[in-house]
Structure formats: structure tokens, C-alpha cells
Amino acid sequence: MSVLVFIENWDGKLKKASYEAASYGARLAAKLGVQAHAVVINVADDASVLGKYGIDTVYAIESNELSSFNNYKMAEAITTAAKESGAKVLVLSGTFTGKMIAPLLAVHHKAALITNAVADPESTSPLKVKRSAFSNKGYVYYESLAETAIISIVPNALGITEHSGKGEVKKLDFTPTTPVQVEVVEIDRAKGKIPLPEAEIVVSAGRGLKGPENWGMIEELAEVLGASTACSKPVSDMHWRPHSEHVGQTGITINPQLYIAVGISGAIQHLAGVSGSKTIVVINSDPEAPFFKAADYGVVGDAFKVVPALTEAIRKYKAQ
Ligand SMILES: Cc1cc2nc3c(=O)[nH]c(=O)nc-3n(C[C@H](O)[C@H](O)[C@H](O)COP(=O)(O)OP(=O)(O)OC[C@H]3O[C@@H](n4cnc5c(N)ncnc54)[C@H](O)[C@@H]3O)c2cc1C
């Protein structure tokens, strides 16, 4: 019996969300009194670094057939590693990739599937996990009744913790047998930016900016903060910004350390995707804007004055 963590990578580099998943898996394994292992697929980085986060064995799979994303084949690869490691709990990060793989793993293993985990398990016998629900407006506690459990954790919700693990990398042979159902035809990736689900700081703007020509000040503020940019749904619907920046119930869910919302009213559907942010700063000219109720800090003022002043103040502060 062990815990197996699926470690994602981005062009061969281990993703931040995966260190968090490794830490979670290691803490859970310690509670269960078993070892934590991990599986990596086509990783260029030195995966032994996962030992720092409590991973004992890293099963490394190399396969040309997994060079582009295929959730069926990846689930089969993870299942192979799970069998090799004798895992009864599988941990993934709830990224786009994790969300596409976790249900397939549950089918492969006839397992209990617990998604959106936001805390370490309350108990291990039975395995009881707190998850966010109702668009982040509440929590639900799930108990696993199955022999095997798949847990996917909300990215950035739990943080990275260090534990001592051996970090021994073992090559694992794998040849997929799953018939190809879907083929990746083309990848159109946003370049040179931190992907939104991975971002620590996000500067986001809405219809209050009046038009796409005014986004320069948002990008400048993001640049001084080392932040990613996001937007509300109508902004991407009107093609002021790309759809890859749309956050909310029907867009990307983010959990950054800092979320700065500029000229966004704070509709419930927007909040559904951003309320997991650790600190929320709202800049809005309307003191009655609903977003202020969800804010840790609020500035009532004209974004066209407040944002450049804030950018300048941060620049000066950083120069000191
Ligand atoms: C099924 C469904 C799903 C949806 N999913 C999403 C989703 O995923 N994400 C999402 O964002 N929305 C979503 N919406 C839309 C949502 O309900 C809101 O309509 C939308 O979030 C509003 O966008 P906004 O805040 O940019 O614009 P508005 O509501 O028009 O707000 C603009 C804000 O800017 C402020 N403002 C104006 N001028 C200035 C200025 N000069 N300086 C500072 N502030 C200024 C105004 O006071 C106002 O609060 C969804 C709606 C539905 C029905």
C-alpha cells in the first residue's frame, strides 16, 4: 500500500502545482504510515528533486506516444505506475490535465473520486476529505468507501511543504494499449506568460476599462508585479482580450496569492472563479460595487487614475 502522486510537467519542466501535489501526497502517506511515490511522464528536469517534498520513488515513463496530451493514454500510464507501486490512493492537481485524467483513473481502479480537495484528509480510516463545492461558496466532506481513492486538489490552495524522501528515480516501461479516440491536431499556446492557474499574482480587468485600447495600464501594473493578466467574461466575449484570460464560473478558476480586480463589478459568476484568491484588492469607481463585499482591500476611484498611480508607487518602492 502506498500513495502515488501524478507529477505534471510543462515542456519537460516540473510544474509548481505538482510540488504542491507531492507535498499533499507525502503528508497523506505519513498519516497512513506508508510511502509516497510519484509518476512523471517525459520529464526533462531532474525528478529526484521530488525527494525534497517527501517522494521516495519517482517512476519515470518515457514514451513518444505521450509526447502530446492524451488523457486516455496518460491515465493508462499512471495506472501502470500505480500497479508497480501498490498505490491505494492516487493524488493529482486539479489542473485542466488533472481534471481530464482523474475520472478515467477512477474508472480504471473502480475507485472513489474526490475532486476539489482543499485540505489534508480529516481522517484516514475512513478516508475523509474536505472539498470546495457550490462554486466555492461552501464545503462538502466526502468519505471514501472504496478500496482505492483518487484525490485531486485545488491548485494553490494548500501550498508546498518540505519532507524528507529518497527521491529515487526508476525508469518504468510503458506501452499504451488504449485505442486512440482523440488526436491533438494543433496546439495554440499563449506564449511568454505564466499560465493563469499557476500565477501567484493576477491583475484582472473588466468592462469598466471601456475598451481594449486601455489595457496598456493593466499590462504595466502586471509587469511591475510579475503578475499574469486576466479579465471578466464580457471582456473576452467582446474580444477585447483573449478567451485564455477569462476567469470565473465559465472560465478559468484561479487561486493566486493576490488578485487585483480593476473595473469589475463582482458578479457571482465572476467570484466563482476567483474567490479562492488569498488576498483580493478591488479598484472600482462605484462604492456600491458588489465586489467590495468580497475584497480584503478596496479602492473607490477611477481606474484610469488609480492604476497608473499604483504602478508608479510600486516601481518607486521596488527601486528603493
Ligand atoms: C451563466 C453565466 C455565466 C457567467 N460566467 C462568467 C464568468 O465566468 N466570468 C465573468 O466574469 N462573468 C461571467 N458571467 C457574467 C457576469 O454575470 C457579469 O455580467 C460579468 O462578470 C460582468 O463583467 P464586468 O464586471 O467586467 O462588467 P460590469 O458588470 O459592466 O462592471 C463594470 C464595473 O466597472 C466599474 N467601472 C466603470 N468605470 C470605471 C472606472 N473608470 N474605474 C473603475 N471602475 C469602473 C463599474 O462600477 C462596474 O462595477 C456569467 C453570466 C452568466 C449568466
Automatic annotation (TrEMBL):
InterPro entries: DHS-like_NAD/FAD-binding_dom, ETF_a/b_N, ETF_a/FixB, ETF_asu_C, Rossmann-like_a/b/a_fold. It holds the Pfam family ETF_alpha. Residues 3-194 form the Electron transfer flavoprotein alpha/beta-subunit N-terminal domain. Binds 1 FAD per dimer. Keywords: Electron transport, FAD, Flavoprotein, Transport. GO terms for molecular function: electron transfer activity; flavin adenine dinucleotide binding. GO terms for biological process: fatty acid beta-oxidation using acyl-CoA dehydrogenase. Its cofactor is FAD. FAD binds at residues 207, 263-270, 284. It comes from the Bacteria. Belongs to the ETF alpha-subunit/FixB family. This is Electron transfer flavoprotein subunit alpha. It comes from Thermaurantimonas aggregans. The lineage of its organism: Bacteria, Pseudomonadati, Bacteroidota, Flavobacteriia, Flavobacteriales. The gene is etfA.
